[in-house]
């Protein structure tokens, strides 16, 4: 780190990980054998990243949720061949947020993420953070995987055109994890890093928790919740107040069907705890006025399996589907058109921007969807209006974040000029 310049090397590599005791599972990772490091960036920094591909196949490095120019965004055009390197440079422009990075090569994204390529990015700002990494601030990357008889991740073996679901739940790459927490407020940064599974999470004692941030950063105010849905690629920062619970109480983070994600053990911190949740202050990058604009782009999500389309078309690397002016807000209407089978939920994601949800089916969105988002989940039949602004130029992808849908062509390109 020199002044405001920071340098990183991120290497996609092959490795072996002991997920099951005594067994080596072949995995992929960034700078490690499985998953990746938490990259901590600060607003205002000039970041220089050397990207290295040490895999046997081509890959790209995509910065999901980051405001970045199209050239550095790591979409399917930015392929790095095995053994090759590339450098990207960008300035961190956005406020505190939990983002992530993952590969995006055409038709191979789902497989590479499934095998372990995913890492978190924390954007920090100058405000004091009352939570401390590893002490009362923990990342929770939720992923489901299926292993074959040899306990290997054989993507071909489980691949499904509507998205791969696994019977084993991993958190941060670990099976059946437990976590010891202090009897104080603890922040969890959740990422749904699964290919297609939706999670609705809750506490086993049915107590509430607070959501303080969504994809793009802090909400205007903490939102009290008993349940929270996360579709693929969505993030949420939640705060659980463990001082409310008895020390020997058996508390778990579970899914709505009762599946256990994470059992907690509460320990006495032994000193006074005073981690007040910081006063959220969502920066206004899209004004209320801009949110009143007429719809100028319509997106229709349709189909299942191999037949998924956006606006009736499949992804074509050589076709630009939309254009938009840099710095200008437009209102997009996203419609999840049901099919004869009813259809399915599609998490719709846009690269290189954080947007605001104006309405869902004509109604004001729930409070925890009123902050900045880069992914919005639509049930079949849902119509959402979102206000979208790009701060950087270039070609950006928008797509369904069920990774197999994306690989099957449920993706389009917008050129920002
Ligand atoms: Cu997670 Cu195309 O993105
Ligand atoms: Cu993305
Ligand atoms: Cu989809």
Automatic annotation (TrEMBL):
Domain Plastocyanin-like intervals: 13-127, 137-244, 302-416
Keywords: Metal-binding, Oxidoreductase
Keyword Oxidoreductase: yes
GO molecular function, one term: copper ion binding
The UniProt record lists the keyword Zinc: no
Family statement: Belongs to the multicopper oxidase family.
Protein's recorded name: FtsP/CotA-like multicopper oxidase with cupredoxin domain
Organism for this UniProt entry: Pseudogracilibacillus auburnensis
Region of the whole protein represented: 75 to 491 of 491
